[in-house]
């Protein structure tokens, strides 16, 4: 249970930083409900992203064989971009602390936050293990 709390806390902090960084982009604004926007963004990431990625991978698995490595990477990247866009739409609809205006704002925010998700994927396991070590728990480096 402690490990789940640590994982959620790390995700909330990282997502807060990511949304704050994205707010410097044209058309992207933070509001008074920023903390709620972070909670909505984190929840949407946990719910929407796996659904979209699974949908793309299921369709791609039906059409591609093992020889199409480049196509597989492109499909994964497209799925990630689409998932990020969907997460941003959900966040902007259900929170008043994060808004995006204009096509340039939507494109820039989607790409920047999608790139930030790569960074998060590289560091989250190490951060979780270090936090669990500092909290006196067993270091868990694998994702569930």
Essential attributes:
144 residues, mainly alpha, 4 helices, 2 strands, disordered C terminus, Phage holin family protein, transmembrane helix
Adjacency order of strands in the biggest sheet: 1-2
Q: Please mark out the parts with pLDDT under 50 across 5 or more consecutive residues, or reply none.
A: 139-144
Radius of gyration from the CA trace?
A: 17 Å
Overall SS class? mainly alpha
Number of domains in the coordinates? 1
| Main β sheet profile | 2 strands, antiparallel
Q: Helicity level, as a percent range?
A: over 70%
> What do the pLDDT scores average to?
83
Tell me, briefly, the overall form: globular
Q: Give the termini distance in whole angstroms.
A: 12 Å
According to DSSP, the number of beta strands is 2
Work out the strand percent. under 5%
